């Protein structure tokens, strides 16, 4: 085992990473490649699935080179992925019929409003644990089947997409499913990703016939649903393929569930927040699917072979790290590393609030027509104030979710495990601790999303024997404790609510 490793494909919203982990959970190889963000219309977001697959092959090869190992030294491959992003492809040719519709895509907002008007929101929530929202895969799949055929982007064959789907000629899946298919030839997803489609019944653990009928998605095109860590394996890579080796593909988790797993949140009440393009706050609720009265999602956390499903409560914040990218896009900063220095130099936002609702508001507000808003500016407002307001918006949105989480779960938050690219920013971590008024704990390995899927795959093939081994791997890098006065923070947070109200229900024309 000294010379063997586990590989993790981390296919994210902005790029694809491959990481190689050793038995102690340390990174020994790493490679990353960005892919194009496609915006055909306001509120529409697409990715090219073929570009993602090509990049995946490139980063696996580069990551193995970085680690200085051969493919044969991998005991298993795990996959973690941007969730909800939806692809339909031709079963025979393997070619997508259209670009992937990304989780951020809002083109189906009007369809969601139809569901709301038909009083189907609670019906959907009872089955799936999800809000009726364009975020999830169901309305994306419906849109593709209704609208993709005229575009004829990649498919080499014509014909009505719906009839072809019913005849089993088309396959649908989230990004994990797309990668498993290309790696192994098998059409498989895991329970955590299935639970994000708005087509899967999280209590019955099966595709829901009534939901499939509502969205007119033929069951023939859906993947088989397996445990997140699967001793029966999803399949093997092709010995004659790009790796030249048969490697078990044995684990898959949606990115936020993977981070929960990588942070070793295996017990009821354990919680983590991941700061990436968006931020996603998850709490393990054990084998009980806890329903939310405060705008959170009930979702499947993970399942290990032969064990019951573990559920989670989730607060999905659509835009956090992407707000920092926006600052760069509009030339307020040159790179993300500048934000801490600029924000610190301002001392305060001088009354400015930024609500980064670029693709609507997620938990706990759920407003698909909210849009990005800056309020409180004066003639004296400088870029430092805008940068600080953007960092504060990340912390405020997390507090929104943290308060909802406490109310739903009855568990008081004493510390929060954090991960993702943005937590390298000490200023943001301290700000987060101050605004939530709790300890923020950053682990040594902050790429816990990739680590989680590596753990899932490694457990499946016996590279690790028990989750207790994984707990021993988890080490604290830094702990941040609150320094600000609660009364001061509460006053600032009250004004945040006012700013959120001004962002709501703004986009009226985009879905017309």
TrEMBL record:
Residues that bind ATP: 13-14, 277, 321, 421
Domain Carbohydrate kinase FGGY C-terminal: 272-460
Alphabetized SUPFAM superfamilies for the sequence: Actin-like ATPase domain
GO MF annotation list: ATP binding; glycerol kinase activity
The protein's Enzyme Commission number: 2.7.1.30
GO cellular component: cytosol
Binding site for glycerol: 83-84, 135, 255-256
UniProt keyword terms in alphabetical order: ATP-binding, Glycerol metabolism, Kinase, Nucleotide-binding, Transferase
Catalyzed chemical reaction(s): glycerol + ATP = sn-glycerol 3-phosphate + ADP + H(+)
Pfam families for the chain: FGGY_C, FGGY_N
Protein's pathway: Polyol metabolism; glycerol degradation via glycerol kinase pathway; sn-glycerol 3-phosphate from glycerol: step 1/1
Protein function: Key enzyme in the regulation of glycerol uptake and metabolism. Catalyzes the phosphorylation of glycerol to yield sn-glycerol 3-phosphate.
HAMAP family documented for this protein: Glycerol_kin (MF_00186)
Assigned protein family: Belongs to the FGGY kinase family.
Protein name: Glycerol kinase
């Amino acid at each position: 085992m000294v010379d063997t490793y586990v590989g993790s494909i981390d296919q994210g919203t902005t790029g694809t990473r491959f990481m190689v982990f050793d038995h102690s959970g340390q990174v020994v190889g790493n490679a990353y490649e960005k892919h194009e963000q496609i915006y055909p219309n306001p509120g529409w977001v697409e990715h090219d699935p073929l570009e993602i697959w090509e990049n995946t092959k490139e980063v696996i090869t580069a990551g193995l080179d970085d680690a200085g190992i051969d493919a044969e030294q991998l005991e298993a491959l795990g996959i973690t992925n941007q969730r909800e992003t939806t692809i339909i492809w031709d079963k025979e040719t393997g070619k997508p019929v259209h670009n992937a519709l990304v989780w951020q895509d809002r083109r189906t907002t009007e369809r969601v409003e139809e569901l709301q008007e038909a009083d189907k929101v609670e019906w959907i929530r009872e089955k799936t644990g999800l809000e009726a929202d364009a975020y999830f895969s169901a309305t994306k799949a419906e849109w593709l089947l209704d609208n993709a055929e005229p575009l004829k982007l990649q498919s080499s064959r014509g014909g009505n997409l719906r009839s072809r789907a019913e005849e089993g000629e088309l396959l649908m899946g989230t990004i994990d499913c797309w990668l498993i298919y290309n790696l192994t030839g098998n059409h498989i997803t895991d329970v955590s990703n299935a639970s994000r489609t708005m087509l899967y019944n999280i209590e019955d653990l099966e595709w829901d016939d009534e939901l499939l009928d509502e969205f007119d998605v033929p069951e023939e095109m859906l993947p088989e649903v397996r445990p997140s860590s699967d001793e029966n394996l999803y399949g093997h890579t092709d010995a004659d393929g790009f790796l030249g080796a048969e490697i078990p593909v044995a684990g898959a988790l949606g990115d936020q569930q993977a981070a929960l797993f990588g942070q070793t949140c295996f017990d009821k009440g354990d919680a983590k927040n991941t700061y990436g393009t968006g931020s996603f706050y998850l709490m393990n609720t054990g084998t009980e699917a806890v329903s939310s009265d405060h705008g959170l999602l009930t979702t499947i956390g993970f399942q290990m072979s032969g064990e019951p499903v573990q559920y989670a409560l989730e607060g999905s914040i659509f835009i956090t790290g992407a707000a920092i990218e926006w600052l760069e896009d509009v030339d307020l900063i040159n790179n993300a590393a500048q934000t801490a220095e600029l924000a610190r130099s301002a001392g305060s936002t001088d009354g400015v609030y930024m609500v980064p609702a670029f693709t609507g508001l997620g938990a706990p507000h759920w407003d698909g027509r909210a849009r990005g808003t800056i309020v409180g500016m004066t003639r004296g407002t400088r870029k430092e104030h805008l940068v600080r307001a953007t960092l504060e918006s990340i912390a405020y949105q997390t507090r929104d979710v943290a308060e909802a989480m406490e109310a739903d779960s009855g568990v008081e938050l004493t510390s929060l495990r954090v991960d993702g690219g943005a937590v390298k920013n000490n200023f943001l971590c301290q700000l987060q601790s101050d605004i939530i008024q709790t300890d923020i704990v950053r682990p040594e390995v902050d790429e816990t999303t990739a680590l989680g899927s590596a753990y899932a795959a490694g457990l499946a093939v016996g590279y690790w024997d028990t989750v207790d081994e994984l707990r021993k791997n988890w080490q604290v890098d830094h702990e941040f404790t609150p320094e600000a006065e609660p009364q001061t923070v509460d006053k600032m947070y009250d004004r945040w609510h006012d700013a959120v109200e001004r962002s709501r229900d703004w986009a009226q024309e985009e879905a017309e």
